[in-house]
Design a protein that fits this description.
Layout lengths: L1 H14 L5 H20 L3 H15 L4 H13 L2 H17 L3 H25 L19 H17 L6 H24 L5 H33 L8
Helix pairs in contact: 1-9, 2-9, 4-8, 5-6, 5-7, 6-7, 6-9, 7-8, 7-9
Length: 234
């Protein structure tokens, strides 16, 4: 329940449209670095929350649940997230939204670089007793980071084209639920600690907001250089 609370609170802030991107991005960055510092220093509070949630999910382990969560984690893998975003890029590009397509590509490439740099800097070992094989370091979760970027892209760049507000809200809700399920799958399978998936959502939200600031500040210059269409995302 604690895991769901933190993820839901992060998502409410991420998905809420606002005119204070600068301060929101700063808040995300500070929250992320605070969590990162607590992880690096083996803070007892974070360790206690991680172990408590892992023990709770451990009671749910069964062959059926493992197959379900293994399928979910495969669909939310970094490779699949890249495929999803590339498809969205192509669809937008072919429909004349070249600026949005290039912007997504920038977020995808730069975001994965940042996530990788954090991993090799923190060098947090994965939880013991992994149910399925997982290599590399634990913090942050590449699954949750990539899935969050995919969902943000869909909500802000794709769903606005749907005329029905009720449909947009329904799909947004389902996307949030999907992110929560992907996060739970990573903890259930012992691929990550709960704090890893929370940190990933914060990092993705921070980078999205930072990229929005860059987009609105340098859009005209880049558009003139690349001769893009004049469509601007609100």
């Amino acid at each position: 329940m604690i895991l769901l609370f933190f993820i839901q609170r992060s998502l409410i802030l991420i998905f809420k449209q606002n005119n204070h991107r600068k301060w929101l991005s700063i808040a995300y960055v500070l929250a992320f670095f605070l969590l990162e510092l607590m992880i690096i220093t083996n803070n007892s509070l974070i360790l206690g929350i991680d172990h408590s949630i892992q023990n709770s999910l451990g009671n749910l382990v069964s062959p059926v649940n493992t197959r379900i969560f293994s399928t979910i984690t495969s669909l939310g893998s970094p490779i699949m997230d890249v495929i999803y975003l590339v498809i969205i890029m192509l669809v937008l590009f072919l429909n004349g939204k070249k600026d949005s397509s290039i912007w997504i590509g920038f977020i995808l490439l730069s975001g994965n670089i940042i996530s990788f740099l954090v991993k090799i800097t923190v060098r947090r070992q994965r939880p013991l007793g992994k149910i399925i094989p997982a290599s590399g370091y634990s913090f942050p979760s590449g699954h949750v980071f990539g899935t969050t970027l995919v969902i943000l892209t869909l909500i802000f760049l794709v769903l606005p084209y749907l005329k029905s507000q009720a449909t947009r809200k329904t799909i947004t809700f389902l996307l949030i639920v999907w992110l929560i399920i992907v996060a739970i799958s990573r903890v259930y399978l012992h691929g990550h600690f709960p704090s890893d998936v929370i940190g990933s959502a914060l990092l993705a939200g921070a980078w999205w907001e930072c990229c929005e600031l860059l987009y609105f500040r340098y859009y005209k210059t880049i558009a003139n250089v690349l001769k893009l269409n004049t469509h601007t995302n609100k």
